[in-house]
Amino acid sequence: MSVDPLILKQFDLFKPIPDTIIRPLSQYAQLVEVPRRKVVMEKNQHAHSLGLLLDGRLQGVDMTLDGREAGLYFVEPYDFFGELAVVDQLPTHEFVISLAPSRFVTVPAKIILQLINEVPQVAAIINARLARRLRETLAQRTLLTMPSPLQRVCAQLIQLTIRNPSGEQVITFAPTHQEIAIMINVTRETVTRVFQKLQTNGVIARNGNALEIKDINYLNHIASGEQEE
């Protein structure tokens, strides 16, 4: 189905674009709804469009040589995905799957490339996203070199933590234990044991879909190896 221009204007990427351009652009955009565990971007495919997540949750994953999923990054509402393949016009290097029922908007790659060339603010947003994705990838690579599962879990939680408007440190949409496990290359059972330890010690606390970080210093000390496990 086509997309209302007001939906597009909810995304930071399109806020700098005048309504006179957004209205015709919206005719080429599509709104897609997918169930949980649906592949929404295939690996080794040329990007025909940029995806922008409206609601739900997605994850970028790759497959190891022995067929296991390796988590790369999460895509949260109002973020976008597939930008690298759109920019360099080379095949995608990962899958993107839905972790929950999700809705996302697709905009043809040729339109995004035209906006990058003609609207400096759009180019700046795309470039900033590419830079952030690179930093996330480098941080994830460093995380995987940590010797213990406890260190890896703590480091992963630190990466996902944000400070909300009330000043609390939280993970707004906390990943499941399985989702964390494929990000840090351990078993789900291992992540569950670490979570139990952290909850028992009052370091983290569940609050609905969110995870409250009660003691970020503890996580930092463990992740850095400064504190004994």
Automatic annotation (TrEMBL):
Q: Pfam families, alphabetically? A: cNMP_binding (PF00027), HTH_Crp_2 (PF13545)
Keyword Plastid included in the entry's annotation: no
Q: Which domain of life is it from?
A: Bacteria
Alphabetized, the UniProt keywords read:
DNA-binding, Transcription, Transcription regulation
Where would I find the Cyclic nucleotide-binding domain in this sequence?
A: 13-133
List each copy of the HTH crp-type domain by range: 147-217
Q: What is this protein called?
A: Crp/Fnr family transcriptional regulator
Q: Which organism is it from?
A: Candidatus Methylobacter oryzae
